[in-house]
Amino acid sequence: MRQSFNKIRFFFILLLVFLVLSLTGCWSSHEIEELSLAVGMALDKGKESASKKEVKEEGGGHPKRDLITSTYQIVVPQATGSESPSQSKPYMNIYETGDSIHQMTRELSLKRERPLFGQHLKVIVMGEELVRTYSLEQLLDQYLRDNQIRPSCLVLISKGRASKTLELKETGEIPSFRLFGIVDNQYRTTRILSPMSLAKLEGKMQSGSSFLLQNVVAANGEVKFAGAAVIKGKT
User: Fold this and answer.
1) Strands 154-158, 123-127: parallel, antiparallel or unpaired by DSSP?
2) DSSP assignment, residue 162?
3) pTM for the full model?
4) What is the dihedral of CA 92, 42, 163, 219, to 10 degrees?
5) What is the count of structural domains for the chain?
6) Is residue 188 part of a domain?
7) d(Cα 227, Cα 235) in Å, to the nearest integer?
8) For 149-165, how does the pLDDT look when each residue is reduced to its tens digit (9 = 90+)?
């Protein structure tokens, strides 16, 4: 009887050890204030800013052709979590110019103490001029391979500079959330196309079929869905 009791106690202790080992779900957690929470991304044809030129002149640059300018929209936790109304915007836009998405992401690591966190990315907006120059596979390959980017992220085309679609004149709203939310109005008008996520877009590109991407225009801090971009297969 005593031997049976000892066996039960041994298995009980062994079970507790396994349970303790499985309770490590938060071992790699990070506070939201410690992350640069990216919710939107804009890609345009390369255009180096005056500040970037000054940094390069001071010896902070490296050889590159500046083919693409990316805009990262970062949520500002202090503004969104404030109980009292604030005139400051709940987001900030960070600009980087380089030759590839991979290169620009690594370049940000040299400038910001908080790592870029893309698991809550809502939209990727690409400028029409850039898409006419490079294929979607070239532009989006990094995002399709990156397991930190949600496959449900929406892809849009901008008729002008894509970076302008991530700016709003209102202070209390985040532009990326507005773009993501406009898609929900599809039941009200046929001028809003079915949302094209990264996951669906990858299938379209792999099949080589032609398809449409929703166009968005921006002016004076306002954004509007208007028309569509025709993406020809195999190009």
Assistant:
1) parallel
2) G
3) 0.79
4) -110
5) 1
6) yes
7) 21
8) 888 999 999 989 999 99
